[in-house]
Amino acid sequence: MSITHPPYREIDARPEPPQPERDAPQHPLEALAHTGDAAAQEWLGAHYHDRKDYAQAAHWYRKAADQGSAGAKYNLGWLYVHGQGVKQADAQALALWQQASQDGLARAMNGLGFLHEQGRGVPRSDDQALAWYQRAAEAGDPSGQCNLGLFLQNGRGAPVDLVRAAAMFSLAAHQGYREACYRYGHLFVTGQGVEQDDAQAIAWLRKAAEMELPVAQRELATLLAMGRGGSLDYTMAAGWYQRAAELGDAQAQFSLGVLYWRGLGKQQDLEKARLWWERAAAQGEERARNNLNLLAKGVRR
Fold first, then answer.
1. Better-scored residue on pLDDT, 16 or 79
2. What residues contact 52, with CB distance under 8 A and at least 6 apart?
3. Residues 208 and 185 sit within 8 Å (Cβ to Cβ)
4. pLDDT (tens digit, 9 = 90+) per residue, 168-177?
5. How far apart are CA 272 and CA 181, in angstroms?
């Protein structure tokens, strides 16, 4: 999927109907929010959002949005996109993000790019998505910069431009945006749009890996297991494969099983190799299925 999601993470939760305002304040900001302070209402919405009380989050975001808060409009739109605390409605998100973008909110511009890319609430259009990502990127939004980089990398809405894509990934990565750190690091692995540089690849992949991005953890582990960018280090490679495997990455599960099978970076343990290959095979990893067949035949190394 070529889109990075707007700032709030996706969380599974059953939407709940908005609750009436409480007489007794439950949070230090509630007393101020009840007086009509828009900033307090927005922050209170974020508080409930973090607690996964999406109905209360929507309640307070709406109050702040009605007073013109661009941030609250964006956050309320996010709830409509995901159907959390409110009934799912792309059209509502579109209207709110259009308002917030007119107020100059960069992440709302990125959100409009997402809606156009996915055809949600509007006809699907790479051209329109590219235009909104461009605006978000120019306004400094790291999500927009990363998404613009992906479009330029893949030739969506514009000719392929790997050098400019790399520049966009760099801008977002230097803001600490997780996926951009991975994308930028991967370019240094392949030498696309930048000069191939294993040391730079490892540095940026490690940043994304430390932010728990499984694909970055797995790619970093592979470079370490190959000795690229420094000394070969199976132990460290195994550690990163382990972290990615525990987050459900099937390729990392396969590779971790290989290290257990061969006794590289881990003490040889055929049962643990089997365990990780079974998990990878359950996700369709064909190499894991093949190796399980080897174990069944008694092949040990």
1. 79
2. 11, 13
3. yes
4. 999 999 999 9
5. 31
